[in-house]
Amino acid sequence: MKFTLSWLKDHLETEASLQEITDALSMIGLEVEGVDNPAEALSAFTVARVKEARQHPNADRLRVCIVDTGSDEVQVVCGAPNARSGMLGVFAPVGSHIPGTGITLKAGTIRGEASNGMLVSEREMGLSDEHEGIIELEQEAPLGTPFAKAAGLDDPVIEIAITPNRGDCLGLRGIARDLAAAGIGTLKPLDAAPLPGGFDSPIRWQRALPDDQQHLCPFVSGRYFRGVKNGPSPKWMQDRLRAIGLRPISALVDITNYVTYDLSRPLHVFDADKVKGDVTMRLAEPGSEILALDGNTYRLDETMVVIQDDAGPEGIGGIMGGEVSGCTEATTNVFLEAALFDPIRVAETGRALGIHSDARYRFEREVDPNFVLPGVEVATRLILELCGGEASHVVTAGEVPAWDRSVGLRTARIASLCGVEVAADRQAEILERLGFAVDTSGESSGERLEAAVPSWRPDIEGEACLVEEVLRIHGYDAIPEVDLPRETYLPKAALSTGQRRVAAARTALAWREMWEGVTFSFVSGKEAALFGGGEAALHLDNPISADLDVMRPTPLANLASAAARNADRGYADLALFEVGPQYHDDSPDGQATVAAGIRAGERRQRSWAAPGRPVDAFDAKGDAEAVLTACEAPVANLQVTRDAPGWYHPGRSGVLRLGPNVLAQFGELHPRVLRALDLKGPAVAFEVFLDRIPLPRAGRQKPSLLKLSAFQPVARDFAFVIDEDVPAEKVLRAARGADKALVSDVVLFDVYQGKGVEPGKKSLAIAVTLQPRDATLTDQQIEAVAQRIVQQVASATGGTLRG
């Protein structure tokens, strides 16, 4: 929420400084995110008069100007076509920084004439794109006056963060009310008294909602204006709208935007001559369309509330008006709308259509139900003042929903919950300043307050809410500092096994030169379907975005999309990982922790020394095994099978199992997945299921990562001929198991099929390393181990030594 200091003071009578106001805002829970004071950046620029402007003797398009700054006369060489004697402009002295160009002025000579400063344009000042000439000011501005003050730019812009429960502070009135309650000035009265109408409105409101959905638009009000003149809004209004990032359009439209930010009361104006018949609040007809004010056409469905005339939809309820009935400079008759809409339905409609508007932002957070008619009266005054014309009687439909309620507060609860002693009369005073009607005449007077909740505070639901209101206005800094007992902050236990595994997995993958990503736990339904989240996917009833409506079946879905986005931006070679949850269903066991990663493009970049190498399935397998090793999984005992899920390439993927338990899966991504994501391959991925890794046996010592021996290792090569459908993993496992004490490593280094190997067979060559621990191996010991390796491989695979 942005606003200017002068705008705030329209509602708040205060002598407090800017610093005092911003400090108070943060202390009462309206956190200040930034303060932008344009006057600081423009402090060097002053109002000056061009005393004389003569033609440059050596340049046709330049003039030599003698500039009176109010305290001195300086010579400036200027190329602006409107530079002339007697005009008031804006002078930038030597040494000043020009924000529009980024340069710092220096004294110099231009075509033989000295130039000591600059007469600046709006673009050079960073105010607009106007660069046809230098700024011309009104004659009344005194020489030497800071330009920011003369131009009304000395108005700081404050930006605050609004929590979802404080919809009332999405208007300056609510912010001023809170500041007044905190003692920063006095809240000014608001003139919203009814104005009499001069005729009956030719347009009337209708409501045609089903009986069980009357709450979608319980009340709507409006007013007809005839004979208005819709020109530009006044400068003060345009300045305020620009300061908060809004583009002035016309007086009628600017008034609705102004009231939206001023009072958190969204409004809309229709060009009455373009409205066909009466206007009706109703549910949209399925498949109907509307061209909205943002220039986009939206297809509507039967769940969306629309404002419709005899010709069709003219607005999307609580979100945006239609282009067809929008006001232009030719508008002379206007119909004003102020309505209440259901917050949940507005949010659902906005997400479904992908529309973000100021009206939607406020209706989602609930607007004041009792301020519909006062909002019409405030807008009426502005329209009549700025656009002229004549107003009709107010027309309405429906009823304002009941909002009256009261909440009790035991005055002792402030001390018991917050540790702060606040007198009962002080508590009542704070609540009354915030707009609550407080009754202290009940039983045990002084021990309990009964507070009638104002209509603009739908977030006040119980006693704890009142405790918070009292404390934030009284001051959080009043909470006393208390030394906690030692046992309350000492750690109760070490990290859990799951937490240690997450940290180990992240470290292992970072060491493998992968970048960590932190993504949403949501994906689109399309992305979920690519990674196994079909009909059984966990859909969200209230997603934060229309394309984030499914809980992800695996973090790999987010990473694959991220890889595609990076590739679109020229970063095709990348390695990403994430350690986070995957979701199967909404049961207590429907969530698991997964370490997932993706590599795309080339693993080794091209260089003069060696060719590039694209990533392959074994890179992903290495990543998965690194995670398993870091998490103390028995990697040497794992089996590799070919039954990876459908998002992996069926011939270039695998599963790492410990018996029937799947610990990880890896491989190339299926071409179908790559096409759906528009990701050019190759791309490989892995998923390690950290929750499935078995716990170490009790009492088992953690194996040392570094095992040194003083004795010489022995290497032996073997080539076995086996059936071509037998996986190499069986050979490697058999060789490792021949002598677990001596065999330290087994590596496959060659696969051969062809001449010398009969059809249906293949030759696998392995290198076996024997590492003695106690003494140097004798030839007889080496031969005995070799024989056992041959026997183990023959028993496990049916393979024979290749002749």
Describe the structure.
This protein is α+β, with helices and mostly antiparallel strands and 803 residues long. The protein has six domains: 2-37 and 156-187, Phenylalanyl-tRNA Synthetase, Chain B, domain 1 (2-Layer Sandwich), CATH 3.30.56.10; 40-150, OB fold (Dihydrolipoamide Acetyltransferase, E2P), CATH 2.40.50.140; 205-398, 3-Layer(bba) Sandwich (Phenylalanyl-tRNA Synthetase, Chain B, domain 3), CATH 3.50.40; 406-478, Phenylalanyl-tRNA Synthetase, Chain B, domain 1, CATH 3.30.56.10; 497-692, BirA Bifunctional Protein, domain 2 (2-Layer Sandwich), CATH 3.30.930.10; 714-801, 2-Layer Sandwich (Alpha-Beta Plaits), CATH 3.30.70.380. The chain is built from 21 helices and 44 strands. It has a seven-stranded mixed β-sheet. Strand 21 and strand 22 form a beta hairpin. The chain is globular, with a radius of gyration of 38 Å. The model has no long low-confidence stretch (mean pLDDT 91).
Short précis:
The protein is 25% helix and 27% strand. With 803 residues, it is α+β, with helices and mostly antiparallel strands.
Name a few traits of the molecule.
803 residues, alpha+beta, Phenylalanyl-tRNA Synthetase, Chain B, domain 1, OB fold (Dihydrolipoamide Acetyltransferase, E2P), Phenylalanyl-tRNA Synthetase, Chain B, domain 3, 6 domains, seven-stranded mixed beta sheet, five-stranded antiparallel beta sheet, 21 helices, 44 strands, 25% helix
